[in-house]
Amino acid sequence: MMVEEVKEHLLHTIIPFWKNLRDNEHGGYYGWLGYDLALDKKAVKGCILNSRITWFFANAYTLLKDESLLDEAKHGFAFMKDYCFDKENGGIYWSITYDGKPEDTTKHTYNQAFCIYALSSYYEASKDEEALAMAKELFHIIEEKCTDEVGYLEAFDREFHLIENDKLSENGVIADKTMNTLLHVFEAYTELYRVSKDTEVKKRLEWILDTIADKIYNPKLHRQEVFFDKNYNSILDLHSYGHDIETAWLLNRGVDVLGEEAYQKKMGPIIDDLTAQVYKVAFDGHSLANECEKGVVNTHRVWWVQAETVIGFLNGYQRNPEKKEYLEAAKSEWQFIKDYVIDKREGSEWFWEVDENGKPYPDRPIVEPWKCPYHNGRMCIEVIRRDIDVA
């Protein structure tokens, strides 16, 4: 059964792999493992990478109750607290040198959000009140320093002066606002509200849901827009398949945590529409294409997109059990992952990306500041938690 296979993969591949990336000398987790499986112990340590690893081990502990996983989460938390936080100006740096010095002091809203995500889950696992206090501090930093009258801004220097958003702008555009940052602020606030029930956080969750529904979601094209000017006007014809299938289930999680029937009703049709459109235009029966820019499809099979596809289609099936095709899609995607995306070499984990026939791209590392157990580890955790009969 799929659930048993996924649990086996989590226990015997993903968890041991990331435990082996632990840096006991300088703290945190090593930042680079090349395609050739050569570990660079002096590579930059991305703060997103370390937040996501901390989040992963905290959630793995909450699920599995293995004390060694809590120890890993504590190790990640200590590194974040001691090195990633700017103790003078507040907020989280973008990256740290291997031995704990600020490397890139950019303060990106996306990065602050992922730290909240990690701290909230770590608080749930450890009951460490300091972690919750830090998460709330970052919440207030985002709300007070990273917003304008329209929504969430993107990038700032060390002292929170606005700078160009080159971290999250791709496809040849520099965006004032992005769907990606808004989505992950929402994801982080969902976790923070779930563990704290803070009414201020709840208000912002509702505001973000309204913004997604009214400005990000494009009902005519059955997708989200991705890159925006300062007033949330779309500036690029782009359909990000992976983000849409991820958004669908994260919205579902968010409205469930929020517990407000009005938002269940408002967001339900959007969740269903995003799921249906991705299934219709991006899924080939086995795996999911990356994105479509100006009508041209990028057919690369990226690791995180494949992981989110499994969760997204399982979520779609749970919402609409008559849609057996979503269940079959999740099973087929898992088969593709097993066959082609998981790197079978000893000491490895998942390839960054493969082509539509499953051939890996050897110019992509196995670990780097974005490549971490957040997506594939979360996929395993979600499959196990949902425990759907997918024999």
Detail the topology: elements first, then pairings.
Elements: H1 2-19, E1 45-46, H2 47-64, H3 67-84, E2 95-96, E3 102-104, E4 107-108, H4 109-126, H5 129-145, E5 155-156, E6 177-178, H6 179-196, H7 199-216, E7 217-218, E8 223-224, E9 227-228, E10 238-240, H8 241-258, H9 261-281, E11 291-293, E12 296-298, E13 301-302, H10 303-319, H11 324-341, E14 353-354, H12 373-386
Antiparallel strand pairs: 1-2, 2-3, 4-5, 6-9, 7-8, 10-11, 11-12, 13-14
Helix pairs in contact: 1-12, 2-3, 2-4, 2-12, 3-4, 4-5, 4-6, 6-7, 6-8, 8-9, 8-10, 9-10, 10-11, 10-12
Describe the structure.
The chain has 391 residues and is mainly alpha-helical. It has a single domain, classed as Alpha/alpha barrel (Glycosyltransferase). 54% of the residues lie in helices and 8% in strands. It has twelve helices and 14 strands. It has helices spanning 2-19, 47-64, 67-84, 109-126, 129-145, 179-196, 199-216, 241-258, 261-281, 303-319, 324-341, 373-386, and strands at residues 45-46, 95-96, 102-104, 107-108, 155-156, 177-178, 217-218, 223-224, 227-228, 238-240, 291-293, 296-298, 301-302, 353-354. The strands form six sheets. The chain has a three-stranded antiparallel sheet with strand order 1-2-3. A three-stranded antiparallel sheet has the order 10-11-12. Strand 11 (291-293) and strand 12 (296-298) form a beta hairpin. Helix 1 packs antiparallel against helix 12 and helix 8 runs antiparallel to helix 9. The chain is globular, with a radius of gyration of 20 Å. The protein starts with a helix and ends in a 5-residue tail after the last helix.
